[in-house]
């Protein structure tokens, strides 16, 4: 077989696998948004069946032969040196997926997918009834499956490293620890200084904001940010998420609370950031494995950049506040744009990660990282987890959960078996501010564009620098390519110190 | 291999195939309800891929070997005589599916599935813009694929018979012609007699009925009819339909027109009838090929029985009208229950099949049957179709379409390649009234139950007599088993003559 034929066949297999994973995403999207409750068991069976089919296709010996044909091996994944760069990037990504897939036995894939469906349903119920005990056996199982998978893939230090690498290629527990250590120290110091100052007023945020009007404003912001509703939609789910259901089908969800209007809105901006990334892959890679985020952390850099760096800036609210006040004239009658900007950035150690402010947010992530690595080293059991959670959140943030629903049960991730995922959220903050510093060099007028609700130049820059490439570059290479520097926490810390120094007159 | 093991393996394959067809149904449901418009091409690719996977599994040589193991052949599909009855029924159905699948080449299955997605999208646009020409090439293709499939399966007279058998096992063009001939004569006579009488007032039906309130009443009726919302939902789509997405997930759709309140409501009742059938399969067959309607006509007997025989009866409106008037006090201020009952049953030859009254409805079906058989015999071309439609509807019903959108483009079926399907709608009327005559013998108080909005005894009778069995019996056998008589148009015609004789004082 000629090399070109082998490559074409690999691309065809890759496309089929991508389409099957989109089919899975459709079933999951439906499960989280519209599916009737009694359908949950049947849906688990369907998802398990699909996982099995995907695993069978992804581990077909044909792929091994084809990869060999183009010179791609585990040691030299990019294949023959005479291939075009884009094909070599594709082979690197595809080879890694293949190696990862062939090491997992089919029955482990099928079983864990079935368990995941049941676990998610149990989590929804447990959270609703604040009943950690009913979720415990599911969590136990999900950790068990994750450990088994990490063992199949192999790892150097301990199983947790094997899981981190899925979400953040090349990352290890040790490497994270060396960034999170100083981050924790500097953030704690900043939180303490802020805590000694008078908090800005935020009473008006808890007034009654009807859900329909919140939705209207959220959709207007989505459109301003150039989220294309002809290839996506906004729905309601228990936990906001972004999902890609097809090459031109990237959907987001949010949830609204009548007396907490910021939660629904910032979830929309956050998920819009993810969606813009997925919508922005170059056409030539959109329908291939290269049409994917470079890592979870890079993905999070996009969502958090739009949510915080843009969405919580003074310039953003100078542009949007007049529109918001038109929708809520009574609720915001006694509020100035500066009041609103200060309230949106109020720092307040709290229980819920997704509602946390920019300064304490990364501390929530560090908490989860600490617990996860103990769960996986065996130093902590599932039964001890709620107590460990409650103890550590008091230590780090000085708050005490009133219930497991607002504590250990608050996130969807563990119910899905997504361990080693949380660190990416904080890494996203770091990547994001490195990108932002470079963007401000290239677009010095960025702030005034934001003030005019003209977000196009920023999106255009991100499209060219980040989105278009998909996962052609690994995170470390991408950061170096864009900024000329390696990963660092400094830009993020400096940004926070400057912004909050001003807001709180430190 | 032991016979029991072969049977167990056949059931496992059957379940996987059923689950995969449910996955397809999920993708189609999403496409009709919530999918963003730009996603249509990607969705076609996904559906085509799934069709290919299903076809590959459904035609695996393993199945042929397993069927042989249990003595099931094309000539003796029910297999070895010592197997339990339910297993022999299963083998009959499964063997027929297998024989049908192995005769289709995989590339025909994949291609036609892809074309179907594009065709449906083109139909939606063509109907919206009243532009038959843009739909024509798609219709041409869908007919081509249907002919190719019929040729693969083989047929005795002409390709149309091969398509009829899919929807109504054992039915032929000749057999339908011999029932539709007299039906057309008797109905035409009835329509003429009614036409000479004064029409009841129906002005109030065209008043403004807000969609939200229509939805509220429709949902209340669904619940009264015991549609279980924990295993289903109601959504909006261009064309109402029922679809089964899982063993406990049967969804329906409708659409609302503010000045035509009957359309949305009777679509709900109709689709609820389909859904109650699907929800009513016995647990032991629910997750197997036996958990399916006995035929499209039997399915239609359920929907049309609830819609017309129950939903358009005087007793039904005696029970429901007070609730309807509570929701629409202004619109119905000058309307009595008898006015409403008469208006709901107003006979008026019209353009749109789904809005047709009980008397003219079957004539719409006969029109489509006549056109379909000519399209498939080659006597009529796709280019000539609109003219043939317009001519024949004038001949049969005396009305002239104002546009193709309200004429040849009104139904979704042809865009999906569902030829030979329409006759089942009229057969459903015939089956339904045969069942109803027997039900009234078994439950003489049926009418007073309906008046009290106590539909449980009727549902219970249908569950026991029809729903529980799924497709264990072929339609002809089922009719004989339940009523003791073969298929006949007499009960339906008598029912109409009596009901409308009274309504129009004939």
UniProtKB/TrEMBL annotation, chains A, B:
Primary role: Broad specificity carboxypetidase that releases amino acids sequentially from the C-terminus, including neutral, aromatic, polar and basic residues.
InterPro entries per record: Peptidase_M32_Taq
GO biological process: proteolysis
Membership in a protein family: Belongs to the peptidase M32 family.
EC code(s) of this entry: 3.4.17.19
Cofactor note: Binds 1 zinc ion per subunit.
Keyword Nucleus: no
Named cofactor requirement(s): Zn(2+)
Residues the record marks as active site: 271
GO molecular function, one term: metallocarboxypeptidase activity
Top-rank taxon, per record: Bacteria
UniProt entry keywords in alphabetical sequence: Carboxypeptidase, Hydrolase, Metal-binding, Metalloprotease, Protease, Zinc
Transmembrane segments: none
Reactions catalysed according to its record: Release of a C-terminal amino acid with broad specificity, except for -Pro
Protein name as it appears in the record: Metal-dependent carboxypeptidase
Annotated binding of Zn(2+), by residue: 270, 274, 300
Native source organism of the sequence: Gracilinema caldarium
One Pfam family this sequence matches: Peptidase_M32
